[in-house]
Amino acid sequence: MMSDSTILVLCALLTWLMVCNSSGLRIQSRKPGGMERAFGNRDNLPEPTPLAGRADRAAKNMVENLAMFIALVAAVRFAGKAGEQATLGANIFFCRGSPSGPAISPVSTICGR
């Protein structure tokens, strides 16, 4: 089992990747003019595709959940109650409970399965 600190770092990294992916899908960075939109002021964005909308909602959801997860990890650490149950809870959050669950299911071997 990974420690809660390791999971916190992995969740932060995954959140950053989800936000970058969402942004890239929204501005359609791989289409002509996409990189100009990425580095511009984004006043004239095309309509989001269904995939871009879903990626945006998932990224926003992960940001909200990451804030609560950080608060819980900090509370457990400051209270001096870090132990097996806290580590198990963090592992469950990362592997199944977070919005990133479907994103990391192909690499579930890091969760010990």
**Largest sheet composition:** none
**What general outline do the C-alpha atoms trace?**
elongated
Residue share in helix: 55-70%
How many helices does DSSP assign?
5
Distance separating the two termini: 10 Å
How does this model look, in words?
The longest helix is centred in the middle third of the chain and has 30 residues, at 50-79. The protein is mainly α. Mean pLDDT is 80; it is low at 105-111. It has one domain (4-107). The radius of gyration is 17 Å and the shape is elongated. Helix 1 runs parallel beside helix 4 (84-97). It contains five helices and no strands.
Provide a concise account of the structure shown.
This protein is an all-alpha fold.
Main traits of this protein?
disordered C terminus, single chain, 113 residues, 5 helices, mainly alpha
Topology at a glance:
Layout: H1 4-27, H2 34-39, H3 50-79, H4 84-97, H5 101-104
